[in-house]
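Q: My labmate handed me this sequence with no annotations at all. I'd like to see what the chain might look like in three dimensions before we decide whether it's worth expressing. Could you predict it?
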Amino acid sequence: MVRALLLALALSSGPVVANAFARFAYALVLPAMRADLDWSWAQAGWLNTANAAGYLAGAVLTRLLVVRLGNRPIFQWGLLVTALAILATGLTRDLGLLSLARAIAGVSGAAVFICGGALAANVWPQRPSFATTSITVYIGAAGIGMIATGAGIPLLLEARGGSVWPLVWLVMGALSIAMALGAIVAAARVAEPGVASGQASWKVRPFLFEMLGYLMFAVGYIGYMTFVIALMRESGAGTGAVIFTWSLLGLASLIAPFLWHGPFDRWPGGRPMAAGLGCLAAGALLALLAPDGGWMPVSAALFGIGMFCVPASITVFIKRGLPSPAWGSAMAVFTIVFGVGQVLGPVLTGWLADLTGSLRPGLGASVLVLAIGAGLALLQREPAGDGPPASRA
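A: Here is what I predict for the chain of 393 residues:
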């Protein structure tokens, strides 16, 4: 068990780099970049939309390539490219080139998430029941990266000024390269899940409500994760409040796997996803009502608990409902759905902010979308797969 857990932890550098650094850290750097480069809110949102569009393209490419190449090489190369794209973000101030770097990080980040999840589920193939633990550790460990960025980025920007935002990306890029090398070595020691094309076919219809819930998650969560720090700053929050809030969000996501392990094993159908989306909706609502008050830590804690629950629930759901050769393919399809929603969220939130002069309308829309997603997830029944069924109790 110790060896399998260590492998899952090493693989979790994937979500740390692809999610905590390449995607979520942008929220911490966004106010400084916007002020230094004189962007509108729509332009600021566009950089995350570029990342999300790349993520969508990466999901499509992974769906096509995983049957031919397998999960391991795609994960390894994707992680290295993501690290280099993060580094490149600190080498230019041009919006077009920044968009390109963010898009490339999205393409490769999708490959990392899809194929890394399949590998994490297979770190101990002789004991399939361990897959739930390894998946939640793999995804939830991104909270370590969020804690690190939440503590380091605001302090650096306050000490050196907002114009040093390129240094933030350069430091994260260097760390990402080091972490990628460790994860690449770990991936080489994990058995490749079967990818024979003749065995990888599966039907979408039994997974429909889970997919719709995932779509609502993508549209709703990204508005919060892109603009919540900007909303706090706009409402007068200081650096200490920003550090505490973001670090608490990361800590909650780190603890979340331990909280969700039982529900993942016992709750049937879409109940785990519905619970996660409920936490996200409640967290976003608190941020909407009191972005400068004492409720922000509660908002961050709820969001951190729910945020990594949703993708982890998808991975567990697929693992339970499909044979292992179909895991990579199914994860790619779900990630395509996720990518579509994630493309829409940031730019729509930024457009609403420019239109109304406030970030609140976009965040209000996020609350509604997340609540709808929770309702849709509750309609999802347990798949009839070859894995161990969830308890009906």
